[in-house]
Amino acid sequence: HVATEVDVPARALSLDAVEEAIEAADVVISATGSPEYVLSSDHVETSGETTVIDIAQPRDVDPAVESLPGVVVHDIDGLEAVTEKTRERRREAAQKVEAMIDDEFERLLESYKQRRADRAISGMYEAAEQVKQREVETALAKLDAQGGLTDEQRETVDALADALVGQLLSAPTKSLREAAVEDDWDTIQTAMTLFDPDFGGDEPSLESPSGPRDGMPDGVPEDVPDDADVPRHVLEGLADD
C-alpha cells in the first residue's frame, strides 16, 4: 500500500525477497514491529559495502551483522548518541559564547568606570590648574614689582606650583581610581560635582552596576574631556599615578 502512495519509484517486496533487495541496495533502512530479528548475517553477508539503519524498537537487525566486512550498522541507540553529542557541542559552544559576552561586558564596564573616574580627575586637575595660574600670576606680579625676575626664575616658580598641585592631588587621584574599581559611585559623583561645573542638572544620577547582564549604570557620559583639553602636565601627572 505504501509503495503505491509515495510519489517516488517504489515497489513492495515480501520478506522472502529481502536478501535479493539488500544485494542491490547501498543503504538499508529497517523499521518493522517484529519482536524478532528481521535481518541476519545471512541476509547481508554477500551485499558488499552496505549501510544499515535500524530504527525499529526492538531492533530488527541481528548484532552479528555489525561484524561483517563492509557493513555499517546504525541503530536507535547510536543515533541518539550522535544527537546527544551534537547537543553537548551546542551547549559547549553556547557556554563559550556566553563567557565571551561576559568577558567583553566586564571589559566595557571597567572602561566605563575608568572614563568616569578620569573625568572626575580631569575636572579636579583643571580646577586646581585655574587656582594655580591665578596665584602664580599674582605672585609673579608682586615679585616683578620688587625688582623683577629672570625667565629662568619664572620657570622655577611655575614648576614649584605644578609640583605642589601634583603632590596635593596625588592622594585624591588614587582614591578616585579606587572608587571606580570598587563601584563607589557616590565618591565619584561628589568629586565631579565639586570640580566639574558642567556636571549635574538634567544628567541622570549614577547607579551602582550589579555586574554582567544587569545593564550599564544610568548617565553614561558622552562628554568626557579629550586629552587636548587637559594641560600637558595634568596628563603627565595622571600617567605617573
Strand and helix layout:
Layout: H1 2-5, H2 18-23, E1 27-30, H3 41-44, E2 50-54, E3 71-75, H4 76-145, H5 151-181, H6 185-195, H7 232-240
Describe the structure.
The chain has seven helices and three strands; from the N terminus they run ααβαββαααα. It is mainly alpha-helical. It has two domains: 2-69, Rossmann fold (3-Layer(aba) Sandwich), CATH 3.40.50.720; 113-240, no CATH class. The protein has a three-stranded parallel β-sheet. α3 (41-44) links the parallel β1 and β2. The longest helix has 70 residues, at 76-145. The protein is rod-shaped, with a radius of gyration of 40 Å. Mean pLDDT is 78; it is low at 201-231 and 237-241.
- Overall, the morphology is rod-shaped
Count every beta strand, where a strand is a DSSP E run of 2 or more residues. Answer: 3
* Radius of gyration, in angstroms, nearest whole number: 40 Å
Helix-strand makeup class: mainly alpha
Distance between the termini: 86 Å
Quick one: biggest sheet? 3 strands, parallel
**Into which percent range does the helicity of residues fall?**
55-70%
Give the structure's gist in a few sentences:
The chain contains seven helices and three strands.
